[in-house]
Amino acid sequence: MDTIWLGGAEWLAVLRIGLGLWWLESWRHKDRKGWFERGTGIAWAADVAHKHRWSAVGSGFDTVVAPRPRAMAYVVVYAELALGLGLVAGLLTPVALIAGLLLNLLYFTLMIHDWAEQGQNAMMALISVVALFGMAWQTWSLDDALGLFR
Length: 150
Fold this sequence. Notes:
mainly alpha
């Protein structure tokens, strides 16, 4: 593979780190007080799920999220933090890439009507797939330093 400035593995590491920074920004800009104390994030998601064109989204939300809104708020917020840290540091990278891909697919499905969010989730999912199949943990990562996933 011919590349400019960096090698292919380094460019994949740049992509992985960029995706991690994107997840960290998603975590950073969240109103955590609103999510944890007032339940704003889950309440917003409930409203979106119940207005969704696919009834399975609303019923799935009612089954999985609605019975435990406080716990799910912590899961969502801290999953974004964990994904960001894992991808930037390159620790358990394949796990983070798959988990992030699944979270983006959930977000994509929930927010099917929000075109601004769709672009973000589609691009993050694409980066996850490229980084996963390109094995973006081979360079500039703790996974590589620890000899994981070789």
